[in-house]
C-alpha cells in the first residue's frame, strides 16, 4: 500500500498515482499532515511518499518525524520528493535521514521513472522490511524458548542471549552483550575437548555433546549443548548459535529435554557431521504478501513478470546468482553467466506443487490433469486405440476443393483472422467437420503447400484423414477443438513479436502440431488410462500416454498412404527437423510439465526482455534479437504458443467460453460415471454431474493454470483483447458462484 502526501495535485503526484495503478499497488492521497497521519494510522502503508518541494504548504520533515514516532511506522519506507536543482551544488541528505526518511527522490514526473522507483522500492527496501517483520516473530520465539540460546559472532563475541540463558547461567544480558567468550567449555575427562569442538564447527559442521560450564556464582553445571555454525556473506561462517539444555545429577535433561549420557559418550564424543542448512530463510513462509504486502495478484503484464509466484527451487538459485553478479568482478560475473546458461537449458524448472487453499476443485484438476493416475489392483483393463482401425485416405469420401466451399461455410470463415471468430458457427455449417475447411483456408494463408512442396489435393486428403480420426462422439476432444486450437495458433503466429522470432519451418510445424495434437483422443484423461491399465498406457509406460499417441499416430496416418503424405516431397534433413518440432510441440501440451514450461518461459524470455525494456534498451535490436532467436528460447516460445492455444477457452468471448466449459465438464462427468461403473479410482470426484459446481471448477482451473501463463504470454505477444475476455469471464463465473449457482448460465 502506498500513501502519497501532496498538498496539491500536479504532474509529480499524478506520475506516482499512475505508477501505483500500473504496479497494482493500493494508493491513498493525503493533502495535509493531519489527514496523512490519520490515513497512515488506519491503513499502515508500506510506502509513504512526501512532497518536500514546497515548504509553504507543510513541513515535510516534521511530518516524517511525527509518523516515525508511531509504532506502526517501524517497517515503513518513507520517501522524500525534493526539487531538482541544476544551478547549485548537491545538498546533503543527512537532514532527511535524521528526520526519518528512508531515501530521497529528485523530482521527475515521468510516469516510467515513478514506476521504476516503486518497483525498485518493492524489491529493495520493502522486501527488506518484510524480512524485519519476520525477524520480530523469530526473536519472539527465541525469547519464549525454554532452551538457553546464545549467538556469537565469528570472533566469538556475544551478540545475543535469551532469558532462558540468563536464568541458567545467572547473568543479565547487559553483562554479556559485546563481551568475548571467556568461559570456555570444560570437560574433566578429555583435555583436548575444546579442540574436538573447534575442529568440527570451523568446517561448517554441527557439534552436539555434553560439557561442564561455570555459572556466574562459580558453580559448575552439566549441559547438553548443540553448536551450529551459520554461513553468511561470502560463504563464510559469520555466527555461532549455541543451544543448551540443563542436565540433573542423573545426567538427564530437566523437564521435557533429553540428554546424551555423559558417562558413556563424553569420552568418545566426536563431531556429529550433519550438513548445515545453507539456504536462508524464505520470508514469504512467515509473512503474507496477500494480506499486508503491497503487491496484489493482478498487475499490468510487465510488472507481473517480475513477481511471478510460480517459483521453483531452480528459480531461486537463478535469482541468487543474478544478485551476486551485480557486485562481482568481471571474471566472476562472466563465470556466473555461463552457469546461468547451463541452468536455463536443463530440466530443472518443475515447481514443488501444492494446491491453492486446499480447494477440492483445484486438487481434483491437478490430480486429474497433472498425474499419471493411481495404480489399481483389480485385473480390469480399458482397451483403447492400440488395436483400433483408424480411418485412412482410401476409406474417405472424395475431398472438396477450396474453390468449391459452400457459401454458408465461406461466410462462417470470413473473420477467421480475428480472435473473436466463432468456431461453433463453423461447426454447425460444416456438420461437425470444421477442421478440413478451416485447415484449408489457414494453411493456404500461410503457404504450407508451397513450403512442403505438396499439392492442394494431398493437403485436402491429409486434413480429411486427420479429422476422421478425431472422435465426434467426444463432447470436447473432437475435431472442433482441434480447429479451435489451429485458429488460436494461427492468430498467435500473426503477432509481431512471434513473427520476429520464428522461422517458416517453425510456423509450418506449429500449424501441423495444432491440427494433430489431440487426434484419436478417447475423451478420457491420462490418469484414467493409467488406472485402467489400457494398452496405450502400457505401450507408453504410463508417461505422457495420450500426447505420445497423438504424435505417433499423426505420422503413421500421414506416411502410410502417398495420397495424404504431405511430407513425401521434403528433403530428408528438413523433414527430420520438422518432425522433431511437431513432436516437441504436441508433447508440450501434456499438463504434468505445465509449470516447467511456464517457468522456463518467464525466466529465460519474459524477464530478460523486461530488463532490456526497463533499462531503456527498447531500440537495442541486437540485444532483443539475441534473446528471441537463440535456439533454446525459440523452443520455449513454440511450446508456450501451443500450450496457450490448447487451453485458451477462458480467453475467448463469453458465449464461446461458456460453451467450452459445458463441453469439458460433460466429458469429465462421463469419465467419473465410467470410473464408478468399472470400479476404478475416481481421479476427479468433484466432477459428479449431480453435485459439481461448474463455476467453481472454471475458477479453479483459471486460477491455477491460466492466469500466470497468459500474463506471461501477453507480456510477450501483446494480447490485450484476450486478457479483457479473461477478466470478463472471471467476473462472470464469480457472479454465478457468488449466487451459489452450479450451472453454466443463470436462470431466466
TrEMBL record:
Residues covered by region (Disordered): 279-304
InterPro entries per record: HD/PDEase_dom (IPR003607), PAS (IPR000014), PAS-like_dom_sf (IPR035965), PAS_fold (IPR013767), PDE8-like_REC_N (IPR057304), PDEase (IPR023088), PDEase_catalytic_dom (IPR002073), PDEase_catalytic_dom_sf (IPR036971)
Stretches with biased composition (Polar residues): 283-294
Domain called PAS: residue spans: 134-204
Residues binding Zn(2+) 2: 518
Biological-process GO terms, alphabetical: cAMP catabolic process; cellular response to epidermal growth factor stimulus; positive regulation of ERK1 and ERK2 cascade; regulation of DNA-templated transcription; signal transduction
Cofactor entry: a divalent metal cation
Keyword tRNA-binding among UniProt keywords: no
Binding site for Zn(2+) 1: 481, 517-518, 646
Domain PDEase as annotated: residue spans: 401-740
Gene Ontology terms, MF aspect: 3',5'-cyclic-AMP phosphodiesterase activity; metal ion binding
UniProt keyword annotations, A-Z: cAMP, Hydrolase, Metal-binding, Phosphoprotein
The protein's annotated pathway: Purine metabolism; 3',5'-cyclic AMP degradation; AMP from 3',5'-cyclic AMP: step 1/1
Enzyme Commission code(s) on record: 3.1.4.-
Cofactor details (free text): Binds 2 divalent metal cations per subunit. Site 1 may preferentially bind zinc ions, while site 2 has a preference for magnesium and/or manganese ions.
Active site: 477 (proton donor)
Quaternary state and interactors: Interacts with RAF1. The interaction promotes RAF1 activity.
Known role: Hydrolyzes the second messenger cAMP, which is a key regulator of many important physiological processes. May be involved in maintaining basal levels of the cyclic nucleotide and/or in the cAMP regulation of germ cell development. Binding to RAF1 reduces RAF1 'Ser-259' inhibitory-phosphorylation and stimulates RAF1-dependent EGF-activated ERK-signaling. Protects against cell death induced by hydrogen peroxide and staurosporine.
Name of this protein: Phosphodiesterase
Designated gene of the protein: Pde8a
